[in-house]
Amino acid sequence: MTMEDVETWLEKKEDDPGYQMLSAEESADAVRAGDKEDNTKSSDEDELPVKIPRVKLSVVRESLDTILTYIDSTSSPQIQDYYEHLRTLRELIIREQHNAWEQLKMDSSVKPVTGSPPASQPSQTKGHPCSSDSERQLF
Fold first, then answer.
1. For residue 111, is it within any domain?
2. Residues contacting residue 87 through CB under 8 Å, at least 6 positions apart
3. CA–CA separation, 7 vs 69, rounded Å?
4. pLDDT tens by residue, 85-97
5. Domain count of the fold of the chain
6. Does 24 map to a domain?
7. What is the pLDDT of residues 7-66, one digit of tens each?
8. Quick check: is 73 in a domain?
9. Is residue 97 part of a domain?
């Protein structure tokens, strides 16, 4: 996403509130039409679900940095209204990155135990004052 993409998107729909205002009747018709579509879509449920690609937190953070830089440079009050919300989102992404890093550090410090335990070492009692068999039996 580039700055031009953001500007084009914001300028394209200046008068569009982003949603459609429906009367009560239009709203009821839309719900009824949706119910009919739900009944016909039941055969489509056999299809495999669409896999949503995973987005790296670093990419999200860089994108937010770019958007915040743009907002800093614009004089449009409508755009500047979103600054605090996006800044809060950026802080949440940073926390997610930190938590992921901490989890990675914890996972890498814990090594799984594999195989059998090491064989016990032979007794190191040679030359020890209590090395005779009779003395070992006493203890």
1. no
2. 68
3. 13
4. 999 999 999 999 9
5. 1
6. no
7. 776 676 656 655 667 777 877 777 777 766 655 555 555 577 888 888 888 999 999 999
8. yes
9. yes
